Known about the structure:
By secondary structure, chain A is of the alpha+beta class. The first copy, chain A, has three helices and ten strands.
Amino acid sequence: MTSFEQIGSETVWSGRIGTVRVERYRHVDGEEVVRENVAHPGAVAIAAHDGTHVWLVRQPREIVGERALLEVPAGKLDGGGEAPLDAAKRELAEEVGKAAATWERVKAIYTSPGFTDERIEIFLATGLSDVERPAVEEDERIEVVAWPLARLDDAIAACEDAKSLVALLLLRGRRG
Amino acid sequence: MTSFEQIGSETVWSGRIGTVRVERYRHVDGEEVVRENVAHPGAVAIAAHDGTHVWLVRQPREIVGERALLEVPAGKLDGGGEAPLDAAKRELAEEVGKAAATWERVKAIYTSPGFTDERIEIFLATGLSDVERPAVEEDERIEVVAWPLARLDDAIAACEDAKSLVALLLLRGRRG
Lengths: 176, 176
């Protein structure tokens, strides 16, 4: 069921986050619309818990202000077509030093579909064990936070990051 | 508590969605980092229900694919410093033709703080009444969806939009 077709795409800027494109679409009724798209490779986010703690990170997000944000482990897919589950395993090890015996894909979300095609697959990871944290990029400055599961509502209250909120709220829903 | 300072900002592209800037920051330990920021005016989203239905929209989001996305009413702040509550009232009228007697601010979220400063204030609106829908922008193609509150879990399952998921999951949490 095609309701529109893309009739143009112009790359106006390329950076590390992706490519900004001005795209034109024609709907079946003939109307043409222009959309600006920050084309993104996609990402993953992980709600990882061991029954006692949910493993979070605090990370400076310089562009939104002074406070480091409370987030779930997450990251972009590596170029070259990395599978989301592989990216999730990699990010969980890199960011909080954990591996998981059980992985479940719980949701895929678009972070802001009006202007970016960024899509984040959210996983639930359980059966955790410690692994060595590989060397991370020098500018990541990630603080690992073992947050008590019994205070999950407080994590939700403290969290301002959309993907992390979806992950934690879905986790809360499953725990009843 | 200042842990970093901005030491540079270069505008590399400007469009309708905002301005793309390459920003440089210096942390207190001397390390400098580069961040790419899609600078955004901010937005609002509304979980509006009348005790029987939650009022949603379906809207084509051409850049993420064929299917129209199921979302809560939402929109950008108007230029000139529109207050979030005023924007929420305006969007609820424009998108679903409703006014609300009671407004509560439930959360503010960053949609993707790694590359955009977009911040969305989420409101809960109750005590709904009908108003005339003002003329909307010609390319919005919004379908109003009165979704039964008793099937809120199905809306959450069908929803792929981050702000809408946060709004609906917080609504579900309040309804117990």
